[in-house]
Write a structure and sequence with these properties.
The complex is a heterodimer of chains A (156) and B (269).
Chain A lengths: L1 E6 L2 E6 L6 H7 L18 E4 L2 E4 L12 E3 L5 H13 L9 H14 L5 H7 L11 H20 L1
Chain B lengths: L2 E7 L3 H7 L5 E4 L11 E7 L8 E3 L3 E5 L4 H6 L1 H6 L3 H6 L5 H6 L2 H7 L5 H7 L3 E5 L3 E4 H4 L9 E7 L3 E8 L9 E8 L2 E7 L6 E4 L13 H16 L12 H22 L1
Parallel strand pairs in B: 1-3, 2-3
Antiparallel strand pairs in B: 4-5, 5-8, 6-7, 6-8, 9-10, 10-11, 11-12
Helix pairs in contact in B: 9-10
Classes of the chains: A alpha+beta (156), B alpha+beta (269).
């Protein structure tokens, strides 16, 4: 099947099998940040944005992205690096396997929620699982990051 | 993983219906459930280009397109104002934000899954399933029907005045529910729906009038009525065991959720 889509702003016209999973296709295009985890729509490792909204690329069929824009971590590199530094400061990067999907969802949350409470942060990110340890370090990193971003916005 | 020989974007509901008449065809919503099977489908039919991804609110009703996502109903101000936040409460525990941005109301309702929070919450409202061939039928009647090749087009919720609440119980966060419970006080009576027993949700009316005039009772009288109703409504259903919980445990949880949910409506007045 013919498909036309934008991956990180780059227009791609391609011919694909009708049941090509979005996750596999993105990896075949060099987006190795998109990880296969549970493959049952539970872990959030495969999170990408479709038209700016976080979705699961292991779940939504690739063809649903025809004519649409997909963003992966590779398309948000500087922003991801900035937040990644906050994760590292708190020792929350851990093994790193869940980080890309997790960062994609944190950056989506930053755009969607204004001044989220701790409960709202936890609820928004409930679909990002980490098997290394708890989520306390990640939560500290998010709070510090949001405080930093808010400070920068206030100084402008 | 979803496997198919062809993936077709339907250009009309008529075309989708024709294509879906084959046993080897399936309509895909968000693919949350279809992908978990092993079947090789002949045709997978996509109805996402038919304008069914909108919630239309009028003075009389909400019309929720089959391709509206769970996240859309979670965030819809009108729907949540009308239901006292019950719609949001029913979906906010489902996996995660990304999942709810992916899967659809139509997929959840048409699937009539036993675990469906969505089916349970809409069932206690004055709600209807609009089918392409089958017309508009009450949602609680639709939920009893066997699967066929019709297409769910919209869920219609009439703005009948109501006071409602929703609750569910999960063994752990983001898991399938062990039990789901919704209750609504409407002009035509008090209604409860219990799902995930683990079979699909069913609607019951307070035919014993246990909750009659409850808003005018004293606190103590209302508390006794709620206790009696919780005991009665939980006894009106059959429960079964599965990996998540035993039938006895579900029966106990049903009584607890009934008491808490109905009481939460009274607390809000």
């Amino acid at each position: 099947m013919d498909i036309k889509l934008w991956i990180n702003g780059k227009l791609i016209k391609d011919s694909v099998e009708p049941d090509t999973p979005m996750l596999e296709y993105l990896r075949s295009k060099g987006c190795y940040s998109v990880k296969r985890g549970c493959e049952t729509s539970n872990c959030g490792l495969c999170t990408v944005w479709l038209e700016g909204k976080p979705i699961l690329s292991c779940t939504l069929p690739l063809m649903r992205a025809d004519g649409k824009h997909i963003t992966t971590l590779e398309g948000l590199q500087s922003e991801a690096e900035e937040f990644g530094a906050f994760l590292a400061d708190e020792g929350a990067e851990q093994c790193g396997f869940c980080n890309s999907g997790f960062i994609m969802n944190v950056l989506a949350m930053k755009r969607e929620l204004k001044n989220p409470t701790e409960e709202e942060i936890k609820e928004y990110l409930a679909g990002n699982l980490c098997r290394c340890t708890g989520y306390v370090g990640q939560l500290r990193a998010i709070k510090n990051y949001l405080k930093s971003v808010k400070g920068e916005a206030g100084n402008e | 993983m979803l496997r198919c020989n062809e993936y077709i974007f339907a250009e009309s509901l008529g075309e989708a219906y024709e294509l879906n008449s084959k046993k080897s065809a399936a309509i895909v919503g968000g693919n949350g459930w279809l992908k978990l099977g092993n079947r090789q489908w002949g045709s997978v039919i996509d109805i996402s280009r038919l304008g069914l991804d909108k919630i239309t609110e009028t003075d009389e009703s909400f019309t929720i397109g089959a391709m509206v996502t769970l996240r859309d109903i979670e965030k819809h101000e009108g729907l949540n104002a009308y239901t006292n936040g019950a719609v949001k409460e029913s979906v906010r525990h489902i996996v995660g934000t990304q999942f709810r941005n992916t899967v659809t109301v139509g997929g959840s309702i048409f699937g009539r899954f036993g675990f469906s929070d969505v089916l349970t919450v809409f069932m206690v409202m004055d709600s209807f399933a609009e089918l392409y061939k089958g017309g508009v039928i009450p949602l609680h009647e639709f939920a009893k029907l066997p699967y066929d090749n019709d297409i769910l087009v919209n869920i219609i919720v009439k703005k009948t005045p109501l006071k409602m609440a929703y609750s569910s119980f999960r063994n752990q966060q983001t898991d399938f529910p062990v039990l789901t419970f919704a209750h609504a006080f409407r002009e035509d009576g008090a209604f409860s729906a219990i799902g995930a027993r683990p079979s699909r949700a069913e609607l019951r009316r307070d035919d014993e009038s246990i909750l009659k005039d409850i808003f005018s009772l004293s606190y103590e009288e209302a508390e006794r009525a709620v206790d009696a109703y919780a005991l009665w409504i939980s006894s009106q259903y059959a429960y079964e065991s599965n990996l998540r919980a035993s039938a006895d445990y579900r029966r106990h949880i049903a009584e607890v959720l009934a008491r808490r949910t109905v009481a939460s409506i009274l607390d809000k007045g």
